[in-house]
Write a structure and sequence with these properties.
This protein has 435 residues and is of the alpha+beta class. Helices cover 15% and strands 34% of the residues. The chain has 7 helices and 25 strands. The strands form 5 sheets. Strands 6, 7, 8, 11, 12 and 15 form a 6-stranded antiparallel β-sheet that branches. Strands 17-16-19-13-14-18 form a 6-stranded antiparallel β-sheet. The protein has a 6-stranded parallel β-sheet with strand order 23-22-21-20-24-25, with helices on both faces. It starts with 17 loop residues before the first strand and ends with a strand.
């Protein structure tokens, strides 16, 4: 029988304030950097301006965390503020998050447990709701996450190390029970282990990272994460879009559940600063992986009839999951076409897989365009152009619902966007992937 813990009298959590010297120019520069590059450690920059802490009232005593709270940080616009509760049995603790939304799924919640620190972030539209507590007792590494989608309820089931009754869940940590725009949250990282690395082309490799057993993270379709490595005493961060392990992953028998792994197709630049260091990692080494980022909305694919993908080089990576999802989950889909731009035939990522997929699923077509082909190449040549696009972007009907996705080097994306607008495609029909 599930029993609730002893009721606690609600207490107000008081936040300490900081007094900073008002260097307007410095703050303006920091704010600009923060908006453009969220991964910049602007907090360390502000430490130089710190004068001291204001006097503060006594904080909430350790261990005195109410079972249920409603956040004080209510957004003036946006979704309703979530709330949480917790329950226990002799062996389990269940944390329940009530999102008050109906489009919540397992991609929406990210859970990390380190020592006694428990962190559960739920992404609701453009907002982030955080439950962040130091647990009052120890739990086992593994836990389970369940989502009741039709009511927007999330259940996180923890296993106690000792079968004893908890008097409280724990005490609050930084930003606990906050509900703020996602753009205002910092990037949170966990260390993932490199478990495999294999050649895909002469300069592109498929990296497989394994999440910690105490993490639940599923990167949504069309979103990216940041990889972080210490290089010459500095932490360097680069964005990458996870891919499936294969275009035919459904035919493989996974050794472990697929949501334990994250795969990346990464081009190694010999003269680069980040990728050579990444390539030097040995199996068993660790790399930090951030929470997902990105503005691609999966609902853009619903009721879609024609999906056109324009990719150059490793700009193919966000297309992998979009392609898989669309072919598997969109019953209205009539046509999916990929135009894949590369320099030479040797540069084409997963060429044989793409050709096999086109043979297997008649809705899918792929065209390869090379800018520096060998003499014997009989396919299309050149760069992205209005002539190529007007021929490629043929609707299945005059009124079909269309989405065009494009990704590649910045000049490719910018030129492609301009050409698509000139061809009278609306903004709602175009999505460009940029990090």
């Amino acid at each position: 029988m599930i029993e609730t813990a002893a009721l606690l009298r609600p207490l107000t959590v008081l936040r300490c304030s900081f007094t900073h010297i008002a260097f307007s120019k410095t703050i303006a520069n920091v704010n600009t950097v923060k908006k453009v590059h969220r991964w910049v450690n602007y907090e360390s920059m502000l430490k130089e301006c710190l004068v001291g802490r204001m006097a503060m009232k006594p904080a909430l005593p350790k261990g005195m965390l109410p079972q249920s709270q409603v956040t004080d940080t209510l957004a003036k616009e946006g979704p309703s503020s979530p709330s949480y509760d917790w329950f226990q049995t002799d062996s389990l603790v269940t944390i329940v998050i009530y999102t008050k939304q109906k489009d919540i799924n397992l991609d929406s919640v990210i859970v990390d447990h380190r020592d006694d620190s428990f962190r559960a972030e739920t992404v609701i539209k453009d907002y982030s709701y955080l439950v962040h507590v130091a647990l009052s007792h120890e739990i086992q590494e593994d836990f389970s996450v369940l989502v009741v989608e039709n009511v927007g309820k999330i259940e996180i089931i923890l296993k106690k190390k000792e079968n004893i009754s908890w008097k409280c869940l724990g005490h609050p940590l930084e930003n606990h029970n906050s509900f703020i725009p996602k753009k205002d949250t910092g990037l949170f990282y966990r260390k993932c282990q490199l478990v495999s690395k294999e050649d895909v082309t002469h300069d592109t490799k498929l990296f497989c990272l394994m999440l910690p057993p105490s993490t639940h993270l599923q990167v949504p379709v069309g979103q990216h994460v940041y990889l972080k490595l210490p290089i010459t005493g500095t932490e360097i961060v680069k964005p990458y879009t996870p891919v499936s392990d294969s275009l035919f992953s459904e035919f493989k028998e996974p050794v472990l559940p697929n949501n334990i792994y994250i795969y990346f197709l990464i081009k190694i630049y010999p003269a680069g600063f980040f990728t050579p260091e990444l390539d030097q990692l040995q199996i068993g080494d660790y790399i930090s992986v951030s929470n997902p980022e990105g503005n691609f909305i999966i609902s853009q694919l619903q009721e879609l009839e024609d999906l056109f993908l324009l990719a150059a080089g490793t700009g193919f990576t966000p297309m992998v999951k979009v392609l898989n999802y669309a072919l598997t989950n969109i019953p209205s889909l009539r046509k999916v076409k990929l135009m894949f731009f590369n320099k030479t035939e040797d540069d084409i990522i997963w060429r044989s897989q793409l050709e096999k997929l086109a043979f297997k699923d008649k809705r899918f077509e792929v065209e390869f365009v090379l800018s520096a082909p060998a003499y014997e190449w009989s396919g299309k040549q050149g760069y992205i152009s209005p002539a190529l696009l007007s021929e490629f972007l043929e609707r299945s009907s005059d009124t079909s619902r269309v989405l065009i996705c494009l990704c590649g080097p910045t000049p490719f994306t910018e030129q492609g966007m301009k050409m698509l607008h000139d061809l009278n495609f609306s903004k709602d029909e175009i999505h460009s992937f940029t990090a």
